[in-house]
Amino acid sequence: MPVNALYRDDFYLSTCEAVVTAVHEDGGIELDQTCFYATSGGQPGDTGEFERADGSKIALGQTKHGPSKDVIIHVPLENEPRPVVGETLVLHVDWPRRYRLMRMHTACHLLSVVCSYPITGAAVGEEESRVDFDMIETIDKDAVTAKLMELVEQNHPVTLQWITDEELVANPDIVKSKNVRPPMGLGRVSLVCIGENSSIDSQPCGGTHVSETQEVGRIHIAKIEKKGKENRRFRIRFGTPGDEA
């Protein structure tokens, strides 16, 4: 039975109740529903803990997809206790970590607005994220930072819109990434829309994001690296140059 991935409709949901539907030989846990984001599209999966009825905890080190996107496997840390099928658990996402990832992922979308080149790769991290662009132009990192912070401070709304897989196939130009496949296969695809009526940006993405750009906070381009003749890697960090995040 497909899991009900609650985070797809509510990025701010950090706790919920769920029933164990399967426990794998390697300890991986499947649930009827979850607020834990599964690794996908360059964003790491959630960590956190499961609370049992007796108050004891099961610490989670990874959340990932199974053979398909409608299977989500929660992987406990080594030597953690195993629940049993049918057991009810209370899920607690490591919220400070998730929120940093949400801010970073939204910052990556803003960077794709400032640098309107095809994306060849991306990875979202707690301290630093990277976005690779198919470009040969030289660009000043401080100028990019200034444009990013302008979008952040304008406090544009960030909303979600759903379209069908068929609508995405019929409109391939909305996909900015050259190499990362949009989150298809569930019958519907989420578009992350920035600005009123998507005035700033709209692109398919299954990641988690903040609700307005001001939440991203202060960010900067720490480095722009040349990765091949037609590839530039932008590294985004929190704070200002020289700051600790």
Mean pLDDT rating: 91
Instruction: Work out the helix count.
Output: 3
CA gyration radius, whole angstroms = 19 Å
Tally of DSSP β-strands: 15
Keyphrases for this structure?
ATP binding, four-stranded antiparallel β-sheet, alpha+beta, metal ion binding, metal-binding, globular, Alanyl-tRNA_Editing_Enzymes, six-stranded antiparallel β-sheet, 15 strands, Ala-tRNA-synth_IIc_core, 245 residues
Explain this structure to me?
The mean pLDDT is 91. The N and C termini lie far apart (41 Å). The longest helix is centred in the middle third of the chain and has 20 residues, at 95-114. The strands form four sheets. This protein has a six-stranded antiparallel beta sheet with strand order 3-2-8-5-6-7, with no helix packed on it. Strands 9-10-15-14 form a four-stranded antiparallel beta sheet, covered by helices on one side. A three-stranded antiparallel beta sheet has the order 11-12-13. The chain has helices spanning 95-114, 141-153, 165-170; strands at 4-5, 15-23, 29-31, 33-34, 48-51, 57-65, 72-76, 88-93, 119-123, 128-133, 158-164, 188-194, 201-204, 219-226, 232-238. It is α+β, with helices and mostly antiparallel strands and 245 residues long.
How do the strands and helices of this protein lay out in sequence?
Layout: E1 4-5, E2 15-23, E3 29-31, E4 33-34, E5 48-51, E6 57-65, E7 72-76, E8 88-93, H1 95-114, E9 119-123, E10 128-133, H2 141-153, E11 158-164, H3 165-170, E12 188-194, E13 201-204, E14 219-226, E15 232-238
Helix pairs in contact: 1-2
Subcellular location: Cytoplasm
Pfam family, one: tRNA-synt_2c
Domain Alanyl-transfer RNA synthetases family profile: 1-245
